[in-house]
Write a structure and sequence with these properties.
Elements (H helix, E strand, L loop, with lengths): L4 E4 L4 E2 L5 E5 L5 E3 L5 H60 L9 H17 L2
Helix pairs in contact: 1-2
């Protein structure tokens, strides 16, 4: 069985406080320090509990956001790899379509080559 929880003025539940505000026993009962007015003790305990809850909620949200960031990083790396592969394949097709002499080009070849040049410019932005 564990020790009762004490709430102290240093904003953390501790087992042996120097200035105890309230003790919560394992059976659900509690004892308030008689030298502190009950309303002040209640306010302080609620403040401490709220701080602890917000810290937990913030930590959870931070973990969720970090997970989202990690997923986005992986997605960016995947997309960068795909772009590199597409550029390599496109360059290979460009070399295949591009005849040794411009006079040998058809208008379709010109359009395909110009389209690839335009696409590469947009990819590198």
């Amino acid at each position: 069985m564990s020790e009762p929880i004490y709430f102290s003025t240093n904003s953390h539940p501790i087992s042996n406080p120097s200035t105890q505000i309230m003790r919560v026993d394992l059976d659900g009962g509690f004892t308030v320090n008689e030298s502190i007015p009950a309303t002040d003790a209640a306010k302080e305990v609620l403040r401490i509990m709220k701080e602890q809850w917000f810290a937990d909620a913030q930590a959870t949200k931070i973990r969720e956001l970090q997970s989202d960031v990690n997923e986005l990083k992986e997605l960016v790396e995947y997309l960068q790899d795909r772009i590199k592969k597409l550029k390599k394949a496109g360059d290979g097709m460009y070399d295949f379509i591009n005849p040794p002499s411009p006079c040998m080009r058809t208008s379709r070849m010109d359009n395909l080559l110009q389209g690839w040049d335009d696409a590469k410019i947009n990819i590198n932005c």
